[in-house]
Description:
With about 100 residues, this protein is of the alpha+beta class. It has one domain: Glutaredoxin, CATH 3.40.30. The chain is built from 3 helices and 4 strands. It has helices at about 25, 30-40, 85-90, and strands at about 5-10, 50-55, 65-70, 75. A 4-stranded mixed beta sheet has the order 2-1-3-4, covered by helices on one side. A hairpin with a 3-residue loop joins strand 3 (about 65-70) and strand 4 (about 75). The longest helix has 14 residues, at about 30-40.
Amino acid sequence: MQKPNYHIFVCSSSRPNGQQKGFCHSNDGVEILMKFIEEIDDRELGGEVFVNNTGCFGICDKGPIVVVYPDNVWYGSVSPDDVDEILDEHIEGGNVVERLLI
């Protein structure tokens, strides 16, 4: 298995019973996840960047949440429009997107 340089986790408010409900799900969490998947594929970063959906991080008032490892950077109030900036600045540029940092 190839280990990625980055692993991005996107809260989609998924639950162990398969239900998706909650703040991040209601506020485009799934759309954010899909946009990351699409952009990573378009940029041919598939071997370097993995993306997964997660359950609740427990800080819904700051959601939707995106976490980037191994940097341990947590972004809040992320919208689908922020995905390009996170990929441009953080993943490809090495700079944290300060305005989204929590």
